[in-house]
Amino acid sequence: MAMKRTDLEKNKFLKAANRLRTAATPERFAEAATALPDRREQRRLDQAAGLVPFAVKLDGDLVRTLQTLAAERGTGLNELVGELLTRALETP
């Protein structure tokens, strides 16, 4: 079955776009991408460390305060929230 002219043009465009995308990727981006684990690997590492995903909904002002505090301490938001919750639960 013959393809329509529009389909042929679309395929040519997709091939050209794919060639540009693969050719324009500098090595430095490829190195950074391989340095980080993918989602599946990160999930496996988190599970091995005993970490469990825990989603909560918080007020926007509280989140901004937590983000600012984490940036000041130079830690991640996960570590900060874990530390604060542990301290709050230890205090009677």
Explain this structure.
This protein has 92 residues and is mostly helical. The protein folds into two domains: 1-36; 38-92. The protein contains five helices and no strands. α4 packs across α5 (77-90). The radius of gyration is 23 Å and the shape is elongated.
Summarize this entry quickly.
With 92 residues, this protein is mainly alpha-helical. It contains five helices and no strands.
Number of domains: 2
Shape, principal axes of CA atoms = elongated
- The number of strands is 0
Approximate helicity band:
over 70%
Q: Which helices and strands, and how do they pair?
A:
Elements: H1 5-23, H2 27-35, H3 39-48, H4 60-73, H5 77-90
List keywords for this structure.
92 residues, mainly alpha, 5 helices
